[in-house]
Write a structure and sequence with these properties.
Number of helices of chain B: 9
Oligomer: heterotrimer
Strand order of the largest sheet of chain B: 7-11-6-1-4-5-12
Order of helices and strands of chain B: EEEHEHEHEHEEEEEEEEHEHEHEHEH
Largest sheet of chain C: 9 strands, mixed
Strand order of the largest sheet of chain C: 11-10-9-12-8-1-6-7-13
Structural class of chain C: alpha/beta
Number of strands of chain B: 18
Order of helices and strands of chain C: EEEEEHEHEHEHEEEEHEEEH
CATH topology of chain C: Rossmann fold
Chains: A alpha+beta, B alpha/beta, C alpha/beta
Number of strands of chain C: 15
Strand content of chain B: 25-35%
Distance between the termini of chain B: 46 Å
CATH superfamily of chain C: HUPs
CATH architecture of the largest domain in chain B: 3-Layer(aba) Sandwich
Structural class of chain B: alpha/beta
Shape of chain C: globular
Largest interface: B-C, 78 and 72 residues
Number of domains of chain B: 2
Radius of gyration of chain C: 21 Å
Helix content of chain C: 25-40%
Chain lengths: 543, 311, 249
Amino acid sequence: MSEREAMEFDVVIVGGGPAGLAAAIRLRQLNPEANVCLIEKGSEIGAHIVSGAVIEPRALEELFPDWLERGAPLKTPVTEEEMYFLTEKKGFRIPALDRVMPHLANHGNYVVSLGDVCRWLAEQAEELGVEIYPGFAGAEVLIEKNRVVGVATGDMGITRDGEKGPNYQPGMELRAKYTLFAEGCRGSLTKQVMEHYNLRKGVDPQTYGLGIKEVWEIPAENHRPGLVVHSFGWPLDDRTYGGAWLYHFGENLVSYGFVTGLDYENTWLSPFDEMQRTKLHPIFRKHFEGGRRLIYGARALSEGGLQSIPRLTFPGGALLGDSAGFLNTPKIKGTHTAMKSGMLAAEAVIDALKAERVEPAAYTSLVRQSWLYDELKSARNVRPAFARWGSKLGALYAGFDAMVLRGKAPWTLHFKHADNETLKPASLSTPIAYPKPDNTITFDKLSSVFLSNTNHEEDQPVHLKVRNMGLWKTVNWDVFRSPESRYCPAAVYEAVDTDAEARLVINSQNCVHCKTCDIKDPTQNIDWCTPEGAGGPNYPSGM
Amino acid sequence: MTVLVLVETEAGQIRQASRSAITAATKLGDVHALVVGNAADADAAAALAAKVTGVAKVLKAGADVLTHELAEPVADLIVSLAGDYSHIVAASTAVGKNVLPRAAALLDVQPIPDVMAVIDADTFVRPIYAGNALATVKSSDAKKVLTVRATSFDPAPAEGGSAAIDAVNVTVQDTVSRFVSEHTPTSDRPELESARVIVSGGRGLGSAENFQSVLTPLADKLGAAIGASRVAVDSGYAENDCQVGQTGKIVAPELYIAVGISGAIQHLAGMKDSKVIVAINKDADAPMLQVADYALVGDLFEAVPELAKAL
Amino acid sequence: MKILVPVKRVVDYNIKVLVKSDGTGVETAGLKMSMNPFDEIAVEEAVRLREKGSATEVIAVSIGVQQAQDTLRTAMAMGADRSILVLSEESPEPLAVAKVLKALVEREKPDLVFLGKQAIDDDMNATGQMLAGLLGWGQGTFASKVEIVDGRAEVTREIDGGTETVSLAVPAIVTADLRLNEPRYASLPNIMKAKKKPLETIQAADLGVDMTRRLTTVSVAEPPVRKAGIKVGSVAELVEKLRNEAKVI
């Protein structure tokens, strides 16, 4: 421990997504003297950002009323919207979308590359004096006298077998009066903090989705900037939550992706293949003709909403954005809520700094008083309705909730199970026959991972820690036939020697940091830990 | 137009890559071959150069200062001979890449390295971004200095010509550099990056023992380096420094034999520029077979020893 | 002994670049940029020589756009003492770079200039050799080992099929190959400290160097996709094809 260098800050923020960056900016806006340090495990800001994304500019407008003049990369306003219920061959367009599914009315919103928005936010933050250090992963929470006093970055140059290599560099302690965790969904340090302070006591289990995304470049004559298409129904069965998105934006770019609710039951389901085969549906296929695929990526997202949000503060810090679970699932938007939560946390922290309070507890009440809370409250019953009654009835309930109850139902539906508990054994699941990739519209996993520019320093310990390999054999293989080899969108997990003594191979170098294995493993036997800083995907501009 | 080609010699022999450079140069004009070395080597090599098809004249520069083809004296020599030549060409070898840019700077010319195709006297195709893109570039320099990729041009036939040999009066000196020693291992296995032939193994080999026992005899027969896919390295079949691919080494040998390698795109990224690719795999759908010039679908444990025996 | 280390800001080696669909070039906008990996090796070697006591000062220099200062900060985080940014267009040609460097060498009077052997964007592999030519210095290119022996630089060079060692009078140019060393990480404390190291900015124009490009890019294309060849039915057929058709054995 002693060989680590340490540095003191007022506030340390872990994670350079919209929540962390908005918090950093707000902190310096409110107190230009505050020492604010932000670390990001990606090689640069934006390198690990995956989102649709249609964003609501509401929080951005509060943060920078002059965002337009500052050149924020919100260039494609939503112009047309289509929502489809799909059967295998047909798509039924939902009429009067703004009344039936008002959450999805996107008028006034923008199609963006969230990675680019984050790069821009980081520029603004640095101008305001925030110190930003990409390429450094928060690997350890520092807790002293039951107060979080900062984080330590990971050691660099540890060899595969855990020894100090020739280029060993110890991590660094970033000590702070307040530490804000903005790691996104299923943050690895957030997980430790939640456990240590028992922050999930009394709230519903979090439920998650896995979003898998591609960016395409298509012929100019087919490009309709601002077009927003969503679908639900096929290819998922009625018990499985999810659907596709397709947005036209930027210079002949198309963002296409698919979210699969991770409370799915069929162990044979492969979110990656659902995503690939949906592109072949006539509603979507025409958008890809003549185009070329540029980028691929994946990331889990929190879908639980209000019922699943843990206690937000603890001695010495707070949880922000999707680390806390502020995503508005019916809206399928979390950027504006993440930013807002960061801004509110910043206000509470500035206040706590002045009063030298241990816990920035005002954050919780600020959230309760803000539009953020109202929004999540009115949306709270939609996702659980899908979990309970399936897609068709869930959608009906959602329409009823929106048109009749207007989000003001006197009841709250709850999530009963964590996502790792929902899987059915292989013998009780129906195998799914996915089409082979055609290498024009659809592709295999490895050539997809190639387009995420993923890399990890080879000589380092495996960052996906299987606690008990014996359990993998008796549960994951014997009962579920290796679901991780299907839900992992990056071909990290492979069951080999399946005709003899099956064993698990972990290709950790492929990992795109989506965190699905940490969520979905039936016995929570896989721990996603931060690899050496700067490892993981390198999503370029446009993602 | 007349083109000056720097011809590399090795113990009085002409290197094959230089004959490829001659082929490229013939597309630009009459070829004068410059042969450098100590007096004896230059004599021997000049006689051979005179026979190479396409060579119109041989310039023989024999002097002790040129023995090791060091950049400093050779570049000065080229500059002193540059005169009216429209192009100065060498192969993209360690020598060519060392010498020609230096000569170009002295001539105030921006060199054009690694030429893969000659479009016209001013315009050439060359790889950028490790071969992930091919740029067609046009030079505005009065004199062009280029190195050419040997694998992009067939070597000019060693026989068929009868050029005159002119001895050059060598006056260049070298006051700044001095040759100390050379180390060219012959018995050891060649380095992956510079090997002419690579035998590479993947998961299909099943174990570290098989990896050695199956691949080594074939590699020995071919004088080949041994490579491995990432899976083979990760599974402990082969050492890390054998890894070919996106995160390993990028290779472009004349012959690449992929044994039991499925051919994930990450692996292909490291060897797709090989001149000839052979795939031996039991899976007829393996992506490696989609890029192989010769694919043998079958049991590698039978095929590879049989191949080693047949060579 | 003073060492000058020119470093170039290039598209990060992990990023696969794409050829623009109109064939005018490679799309580089918005891509992660990093120090050219060969230049990292050069910086590392220079810093090691200073740490060993063979050198007294390491100066990093970059020629290009304003953002190249990030690359210089990285060099300083790795151990360079100070740096110079020469502002110019993005990615000037090696000839122009060599001329700018010559002007800087005349100003800074270093004993050694360490460069990466080539930049991974234009793959020119020329700047070090050209600078050596313009200065009339000896050149130890593609170095896999560098030692200072009796005031001379002894450089082991990667050549086809092996290595060669040359002894160079100092001042001299060395270009780094992959095996020279494994560069260190820029650690977080050192990145923080590097923010305070001196970085001087000058305009290329002020050095009186003509930077006019000599090469124009007519077009850029993707390399042809490799097509599947033939299936052979037996080992004997394979041997026959390799011998008589492909002529590689």
